[in-house]
Write a structure and sequence with these properties.
Blueprint lengths: L7 H17 L2 H17 L4 H18 L1
Organism: Halomonas cerina
Protein name: DUF2783 domain-containing protein
């Protein structure tokens, strides 16, 4: 059984809110905010392996962008 995912329209809403929030923060606080957000979201996922997989997915995505 696959885990449920967020519908694309909702994902777009989340992306927009995240982008708007990052735009309001000083650059020096962005990393801290993103780390806090990641931990808050991870706290809501009852499976550490899924959280670790998401971290790996984000790391790989960051590598592609550089």
């Amino acid at each position: 059984m696959t885990a449920p995912t967020l519908p694309f329209a909702d994902l777009e809403r989340v992306y927009e809110r995240l982008a708007e929030t990052l735009d309001t923060l000083p650059e020096a606080q962005e990393s801290h905010f993103l780390a806090q957000l990641a931990l808050a979201l991870a706290h809501r996922v009852p499976d550490a392996d899924r959280v670790m997989a998401a971290i790996e997915e984000a790391r790989e995505g960051a590598s592609i962008g550089s």
